[in-house]
Fold this sequence. Notes:
The complex is a heterotrimer.
Chain A: H1 9-25, H2 34-40, H3 42-52, H4 57-66, H5 71-82, E1 100-105, H6 140-147, H7 151-158, H8 166-172, H9 200-208, H10 212-224, E2 232-247, E3 250-269, E4 282-289, H11 293-306, H12 317-323, H13 326-334, H14 341-364
Antiparallel strand pairs in A: 1-2, 2-3, 3-4
Helix pairs in contact in A: 2-4, 3-4, 3-5, 4-5, 9-11, 10-11
Chain B: H1 5-10, E1 15-24, H2 36-39, E2 50-60, E3 65-69, H3 76-83, E4 91-96, H4 111-121, E5 122-125, H5 129-132, H6 139-149, H7 155-168, H8 185-197, E6 203-207, H9 215-232, E7 235-240, H10 243-249, E8 252-257, E9 260-266, H11 267-272, H12 277-286
Parallel strand pairs in B: 3-7, 3-8, 5-6, 6-7
Antiparallel strand pairs in B: 1-2, 1-4, 8-9
Helix pairs in contact in B: 6-7, 6-8, 7-8
Chain C: H1 2-8, H2 16-31, E1 37-38, H3 52-61, E2 67-72, H4 79-91, E3 95-96, E4 105-109, E5 122-126, H5 140-148, H6 153-166, E6 177-179, E7 183-185, E8 204-209, E9 214-218, E10 224-226, E11 254-258, E12 265-269, H7 272-282
Parallel strand pairs in C: 2-3, 2-4, 4-5, 5-8
Antiparallel strand pairs in C: 1-9, 6-7, 6-10, 8-9, 11-12
Helix pairs in contact in C: 1-4, 2-3
Amino acid sequence: MGYVAVTGGQRAIEKANQLVDQYRLQDAEKALETNEIQSQLRLLIDRVMGEGGLYAPEYAAIALKQAEGDPAEAAFLLRAYRSTLPRNYYSRLIEPGDMRVIRRISSSFKDIPGGQMLGPTYDYTHRLLNFDMRNEKGAVKEFLERLGLGEKEIENASSSGKFQKVIDLLREQGLMAERTSDDQIPFDITRDKLNFPTTRSARLQLLSRGETGAMTALAYSSMRGYGAVHPTIGELRVGYLEVHIPYPLDDDDSIYIGEILTTEVETINSFTQNDQDDVEFMLGYGMTFGQNEVKAIAMAILERSLETSGSSPTQDEEFVLLHIDSVEANGFVSHLKLPHYTTFQSMLDRIRTAQKEQEKIEVKS
Amino acid sequence: MEWGSVKDMEENPILSVRHLNKRYGKGCKHCESFDMLDKETNQCPHCGSVWACKKVSFDLYEGEIIGIVGESGSGKSSLVKSLYFDDDVLSGSATISKYKHGQRNIFQVSSQQKRYIRNHLMGMVYQNPWLGLKMSFSSGGNIAEKLISAGTYHVGNIRDRASQLLEHVEIPLSRMDELPKNFSGGMQQRVQISKALANNPPILLLDEVTTGLDLSVQARVLDLIRNIQREFGVGMIVVSHDLGVIRMLADRTMVMRYGSVVEEGLTDQILEDPHHAYTQQLVHSLL
Amino acid sequence: MSFQVVREYNYAFLDEGSKKEIRRTTLKAIAIPGCQVPFASREMPIGRGWGTGGLQLTLSLIGDNDRLKVIDQGNDDSVNAVSIKRLVENCTNVATTNQSEQATLIQTRHRIPEIPLRKDQILVFQVPLPEPLRRTEPKEEITRRLHAEMEYSSIWLRLYEDIIKWGDITIGADYPCMVHQRYVFNPSPIPRYDLPKLHQANGLYLFGAGREKKIYAVPPYTDVVPLQFEDYPFQVESFEGLMCHLCGSDSSFLDEVYDADSGEKKYQCSDTGYCEARQQERGKVEWNGDL
């Protein structure tokens, strides 16, 4: 029996599900524990949380285990789960200037107030396959002790407090447009229906949960010539932000509910990309859950690009926003695996008619 | 002198434009009263807004050709694009005698109504044929689109009418089902003209239609426009920077500069005896 | 898995607020036949493009007294139909059926059942591409405007060019139709054979596009007319001289199948529920779900 006309579909599905578990575990000595995924596949967790639109490291680890490491599938699992959750609170405004920074760089200035701070980054490690990884098992504590970075030192490195934003330096000098406070309630892409042209808040949300690879590719195209945006990074910071919600009984009071790791990028763009004709640098803004620097930079590029008008792909709001969503792109491309035999029957009917018409014309001539 | 002043008194205009203003930019309190002609600019020195058209008024009569001449940036193209609803106007009115008996300002009707006006009462021929034609559809298809939007849903009838129109503009029928993007510039303009005429509109707008064509091709297109005006009795607004084109086609002429009309009158009169200094300059450069 | 769905999720999966919002959108869609009404489509536990729009409609409407039928290509036992049925069964107390007459709610992909809908039945379509104008215009901002202005000449032009180039209209499934003299719509990729069933029908047809976030409807007794030229009338798929090799029907939509062993071409009903009932009536085969 061909798969499309699978009869006894119920049995077939059950078998397929069993086979997934079979293949997932058949070559394993022991099952991977989700806390190992959570603690050691940090960047993958961050990426999945960002694309899934749910800050939940533990659930991201479960999703990754269940999806056998496929980030698209894992992000999808998180997204489908979060869509069933009631929306209880909107957090208080989070000010990224208050970030407890673990990494912070600016490529616009050699030195910045508070100093550049490399933090955890691969940027300056040589990409040599480290075969020692094979032997790295067992006690982590001893390994860390050998590194010599005591808990104190890590603590010190990350809690040196708040830093002034580089962008604010430029604002003070009148080189970057002042922020106007906007008290409009932001659009909520998970609750409101999206129409085009959309608002900036909706745009930022869609970008923030966009797929890393797709966004990087589009941002790259903008820098390479299919677009106008080629920014300088004013500041890239990675760190923890406190989240507060309004106290239910007293609107002026807040409750601290935890902190989230985020990456924030502010880019500086040429003043020629300014519709108001003011001679000021233009800001590009990117923010993601976790540490996902390339996505945050790509977001800042795309966000700025969408503020400019022109005919390149990255200046087309619908083109960018509707095609960077991991769940939707993956879903629609993979739906081609579903049976299409009745529509194909219609196509057969049409091609046979067209062939007959063509024969008629050939006979005539 | 059979066109123009005699007609004026006997008939009602088919198109009346009053105080049409078209501005790019926010505008300010100085803008409105600023004398652009006097200061030789159409940009407001206070707010930087550009006035593409300022207080433009004129009437078009049945079967008449009005020429609009001026250098680039004078506002002549903005004027016809505004009339065809390609650009929004700031203020002013335009009425068409065949639309609600000339009682409605067409700039203030719904977008559905504007589409009706574009499909039934006006035709537009752009300098750039890519704006007027759908290049990935056949020439016949381009005409079909107009006919369909006016309610013809019969392929046979569509093709009869399309062949008729293409014949008029001297496109061989054998090329009716070809894509216009493979045509020469002159042919593309002729297909555009036939598309614009598809539903027998009383008004035809032509924006620099011969610019960029070879001289011999230009002459053929100009002849064609003349013939069409005679046969279809359609009123035309012909925009051109080229006084030669205006002289050949237009019964009456408006000279535009910095968004304003500096002089208007019968074409012969303007060419023989230009009053405004700018018109004199233009006419002399032609001679 | 089923245990988890019961334990972790609300009745019919979606939270009540979401269900209510989807129903409100549905009411609006019914009030404006053929008009695509945007909604805040939720992520579902099945893939985007795999019926999330239809599923959200089904889940927002379903209650304990319903009986659900799910088909894909007309087939009750197709893997995707089974998968959707299982999800609904796991998060509600609703029983499912293969018989259209017994169902109150039918979710379908690419077919309308052969037996006409009654006025107490709802048919929910899964829609991949709701926008008929997308064939000629990629931008939503523009297509919305074209709908508002009832400007459909670009679709007609596409049909005209088909006739000029190929001698006939080449659109197979998902054939654009005019709904009650106002909106042109995509009926989802059902064969042209099924289109007449939409016109002046007794039952309610709902269309859900999850990925594209649109809901639209054809309420009972609404005109649905395929776009056609006066001299090139709309044609349905022809099965002249053919009949189902299982039930003998010569008046149903047939699938062309090739025998796995002999390679011989055969025809059989695409509506398996209909075919099964006919076979039982004829007492020819005792059908047990296997072919």
